[in-house]
Amino acid sequence: MKEDIAQVTVSVPIKDLWKAMASDNRHVVPKVLPDIVAEVELLEGDGGYGSLLLFKFCPGVLNVSHQLEKIVEYDESTYQIALEILEGGHLDHGFTAYTTAFKLTQVSEAETLIDIKVLYETKPEHNHIPGETIKATFRYINSLEKHLLKSLS
């Protein structure tokens, strides 16, 4: 597996960020990325480890209609979550495996450090630029931070 890693600090308390990224993920993502994600449906589980989530994209986005993800890591005590794509989305765009992992660390009462790791494999003919996988994740985090700052104020 190849990996891209990055860190970003956001001005959101760790508990609020964890709630949005983990337990409320399926409700928050369509609000945070309304031009990309129309709906997130919980197909199996309770939203924690082992749960299956179906991300339904807005018409015309990425030339795919959906992305099925499984939560493959979920640890509330260490603020770690990882989601593996099982079908659609990135797997329809040259990737054969794709998992995004987040680890949250409190920096201060109002700031949280997010460690991001994207593990992936590509099809032999797919020309992937290292670091490209992080761009979509940064867009999500940036939009999430803005959304949470509005709702917390």
TrEMBL record:
The lineage of its organism: Eukaryota, Viridiplantae, Streptophyta, Embryophyta, Tracheophyta. One of its GO terms (cellular component) is cytoplasm. Pfam families: Bet_v_1 (PF00407). GO terms for molecular function: abscisic acid binding; protein phosphatase inhibitor activity; signaling receptor activity. Residues 7-150 form the Bet v I/Major latex protein domain. One of its GO terms (biological process) is defense response. The gene is PHBP. Belongs to the BetVI family. This is Bet v I/Major latex protein. SUPFAM superfamilies: Bet v1-like. It comes from the Eukaryota. It comes from Helianthus annuus (Common sunflower).
